[in-house]
Specification:
By secondary structure, the protein is α/β, with parallel strands linked by helices. It is built from four helices and four strands; from the N terminus they run H-E-H-E-H-E-H-E. Helix content is 37%, strand content 11%. The protein has a four-stranded parallel beta sheet with strand order 1-2-3-4. It starts with a helix and ends in a 30-residue tail after the last strand.
């Protein structure tokens, strides 16, 4: 996430309202960089990857502080209740489903009330 080397890319994403994906792993210095980029480029949607790391609160905080920052659930494994805690902390509209593994019955594994699932913009269909 070197800011100086990537400025022209961030500017282009901001001008075109494009997403920027950062592979973060829950480290504070990474969140500090995302914070700076989110403030400088408010029209770009910023996706911070790997919510499943050990620093859930760091992901929640950065998503709460910036309307243009979203988190994804990508990871090979996750603690039980990870997505439910994120929905409670930042809302379903700030979460993008992702996985490092194939997906089978993804939503069936979460403990949402039936009306809570409808908050996810893209799923589930049934």
């Amino acid at each position: 996430m070197r800011l100086r080397r990537s400025v022209r890319h961030y500017e282009a994403a901001n001008e075109r309202r494009l997403p920027i994906l950062f592979h973060t792993f829950g480290q504070d210095h990474q969140f500090a960089q995302v914070d700076e980029i989110a403030r400088r480029y408010p029209d770009a949607s910023i996706l911070v990857a790997h919510l499943r790391t050990m620093n859930e609160e760091g992901y929640h905080r950065i998503a709460r502080e910036h309307p243009n920052v979203f988190v994804d659930t990508v990871g090979s494994g996750a603690a039980r209740g990870l997505v439910e805690r994120a929905v409670a902390a930042i809302g379903a509209n700030k979460i993008v489903w992702g996985s490092d593994a194939y997906c089978y019955g993804c939503f069936s594994r979460f403990n949402f009330a039936s009306n809570d699932r409808s908050e996810f913009p893209l799923g589930p269909a049934a």
